[in-house]
Amino acid sequence: MDYAGSTPVDPRVKEAMEPYFSEVYGNPSSLHSAGREAAEALSKAREQVAGLVNAKAPRNIIFTSGATEATNLAIKGVAARSKDKKEILISAIEHISVVNVCRYLQKQGFTIRTVPVDSYGLLDLEALKEALSEKTALISVMYANNEIGTIEPVREIGGIARDAGVPFHCDATAACGKVPIDVEKERIDLLTISSNDMYGPKGTGALYVRDGIRLEPLIHGGGQERGLRSGTENLPNIAGMGAAAELAGAEMEREGKRLTGLRDTLIKGVLDSIPESYLNGHPKKRLPNNAHFRFSYIEGESIILSLDMIGVQAASGSACTSKTLEPSKCLTAIGLSHEEAHGSLQLTLGRSNTMEDVKYVVDNLPGIIKRLRAMSPLAPKMES
Ligand code: PMP
Question: In sequence order, which ranges of 221-337 are alpha helices (DSSP H)?
């Protein structure tokens, strides 16, 4: 139940990748027939990814080594082309891959303004409008939060950005393939897409770049990917990402409904059976596979270790920041104290999970929480 940490490569995706290791091994830039065959595979994958987010044309998709690189290209790419505008607006719950790019740009003279979110993690749209100025070079707000699962008011943010004439970057790593994304309707100018969060191979991602948005490349060389990302394309992985995007799009409605059913049973089961348990994130505007709880008086890590012992893999926060002892920035941004943030448990569902799995957790978690509270110096005596 840690699909936010990683998803397995779907067997159908693996099958789609197979030919591009040894059979179709041409360089997509070569002029001979083997090269053309590889170029066709590359075009197909570009169409598949473009289709998932309703990009106007496949050329708007630039393949990268993953979400982190796509975000680096988007934010640094805009910043490097911005002569007079030196301010970037981000939400208070952005992923570390956005935050650390901004920290880097701060050293280059940019001002980063952080727009607050409410207790559900929804961006404060009025604060966003107030923070905008003639100096704003870019707005970057994620589509959905990877920890608490809250889905942001992206269409409204896109409207605000468009009215102000400011490019809008959106990190859709956590949302892509799970909920419908439409860069046209939502007026997104730059969209970070990840392969390994939608059952595709790791080390591959893409940046959607709207026509007319001018970016400075990070990687210079042979001019692949319209000059925005040089280097011979990783064709097996890109073909895999294309297949993963197509499958996610085709199965989104059915799988979304199934996961929402499992998620809601899990949330109700946990909240009903465990005293002083709370849901983090928005009750409705949340990813179909995300359940994020907090329990008073205990630490998330001890819950995770206890769950692991009974065969359940879970998380207390983002895998990307699990090495720090600091509480999650996202959880403190929605107003939780350090103690509350530390008592969090994130369960994210995926293709392999069944109602049986959910029932197993609902049956076993109350005992685990009770036992941990009995040992906790923070718990009131009566609590155990
Ligand atoms: N953005 C978000 C919201 C994420 O959850 C992650 C991690 N899955 C990333 C960006 C970075 O992805 P990657 O490590 O695959 O580049």
Answer: 235-273, 300-309, 329-333
- For the chain, 384 residues long, give each residue's pLDDT as a single digit of tens: 999 999 999 999 999 999 999 999 999 999 999 999 999 999 999 999 999 999 999 999 999 999 999 999 999 999 999 999 999 999 999 999 999 999 999 999 999 999 999 999 999 999 999 999 999 999 999 999 999 999 999 999 999 999 999 999 999 999 999 999 999 999 999 999 999 999 999 999 999 999 999 999 999 999 999 999 999 999 999 999 999 999 999 999 999 999 999 999 999 999 999 999 999 999 999 999 999 999 999 999 999 999 999 999 999 865 555 566 678 899 999 999 988 999 999 999 999 999 999 999 999 999 999 999 999 888 886 544
Q: Whose CA is nearest to atom 6 of ligand 1?
A: 173
Q: Are residue 173 and residue 244 in the same domain, yes or no?
A: yes
Mutate to test the pocket of ligand 1, among 173, 195, 241 (most ligand atoms within 8 A of CB): 173
CATH number at residue 317: 3.90.1150.10
Q: Please give the angle made by the CA atoms of 113, 337 and 373, to the nearest 5 degrees.
A: 150
Q: Which residues are catalytic?
A: 320
- C-beta 217 within 6 A of ligand 1: no
Question: Residue 381, class by beta-carbon neighbours within 10 Å (0-12 exposed, 13-18 middle, 19+ buried)?
Answer: exposed
Domain termination residue (choose one: 231, 248, 265): 248
What is the per-residue burial (b if ≥16 Cβ within 10 Å, else e) of 220-243? Answer: eeeebbeebbeeebbbbbbbbbbb
64 Cβ inside 6 Å of ligand 1: no
Write down which residue in 248, 265, 289 finishes a domain.
248
Domain assignment present for residue 203? The answer is: yes
User: Would the CB of 175 count as within 6 Å of ligand 1?
Assistant: no
Q: Which of 97, 141, 147, 329 to mutate to test the pocket of ligand 1 (most atoms within 8 A of CB)?
A: 97
CB of 174 closer than 6 angstroms to any ligand 1 atom: yes
Whether pTM > 0.85 for this model: the answer is yes
Q: Are 300 and 325 in contact (CB under 8 A)?
A: no
